[in-house]
Amino acid sequence: MAEEIGGHRIMMNTAALGATAGITQYNFERIADVIESNFKRKGTDTVNNNLKVAQAAYDYAAENYGSDFEWTLEALPNPPKRMLLNGNQAIGMGAIGAGCKFISTYPMTPASTVTEYIAAHARKFGIVQKETEDELAAILFAIGAAHTGVRAMTASSGGGFCLMVEAYGLAAMTETPLVIVEVARGGPSTGLPTRTEQSDLQFVLHASHGEFPRIVTAPGTVEQCFEAGYRAFNLAEKYQTPVIILSDLFLSNQMRTVDVDAFDFHKIQIDRGQMVSTEQLDSLSGPYERHAITDSGISPRAIPGHPNAVYISTGDEHSERGWITEESDIRNRQMEKRMRKQDTAAAEDMRMPVVWGPATADVSLVTFGSTVGPCVEAAEMMTADGQTTNVLQLLDMSPIDEDKLTEIITGLKTMIVIEMNFTGQLTQVIRQYTGRKPDVLIRKYDGRAFTPAEIVRAVRDKVVVNV
User: Fold this and answer.
1) pLDDT confidence of 262, banded at 50, 70, 90?
2) The domain spanning residue 432 has which CATH number?
């Protein structure tokens, strides 16, 4: 049909769309509207040819198969505005909303589409996008941009983040705000480049040598990816430290239809943290101390360029002025200053676990990342069968308010941890902070995402709950 009616086989997708609408008795006017909207930039002939192909396929499918097809689609009279996107695109959208002006990456699936989305909109929003020779160069480019006051980010999967780790520590020591997106896939080494896994959690929580504040958030839905995309920049600048957004291949590729209202750019608040203004620098009488000791652990930050804000910042331990030192008393003060950021962040900005379903339940499925989707559906299936079940999703992985998390975890009746890795990495985090072992640990590490039915079967095989 594409060739005979439209003149080219490239219109096969249009024919398939028309046929699907015909089989399901969907309103053809809606299909025509989509075709006209998508192809109008290519000219009237292209629009008309596609409409003819779609109409022919629609009529043929409706006449020959429509009466035998038991599922029909009905167009809503006033449908809400929706868009189709995946987790990586949502992260990119959030980053643009946050005012990201620089991204440097070396292509590595499944993180590449973060860069692709931002690059596609770079000219419109004044963003500099650089493709570097490797991942170490990518993070160093981003650190340099962030040092000059630009909101900057980089993105890679676990293998690429391995190469970034040395510079990751540099950003922490120099207290440079930086956003890193780490989209996990099966490892080690090249591993499963087109399959999903959640085996990088412990890696990102402990990457780099030494101790420094680590902020790690792990969104599990497309909407949460959007929020993480802008929230990470606020956290990075407020606490002057790198922030990691941990995702996974399934979430990065998972296409979902979402309400446009869930992506409200007007709600995005920009928090640039303890910035020293030009006026404050003009009136400065003494030397500017980039790494000044403060109760919160956050030092006033000045953008390079002002004559009163010339300073040194180095990967070595340093004084308040930035001078290299190994003096024990200065080391103690600087170390304690930096680590106070963790306590401040845990108390003020880190999110407690999200509860899906009833507030209390006989069974609680505890998870993180993209596994929250199948867990929520599995919980609904179990509740419908008479076994009250909810889902506890850990969203912010570091820092964690230990007392609050312990109170939540100890209140669970039956705790079943669901995660896509071999060693139970989320289980280790929970036990580290709360001391509680899960009643059941359900793991999957074959590179495929959980299905709700798999979770339900696994729970029923391993636990019996009195209803």
Assistant:
1) confident
2) 3.40.50.920
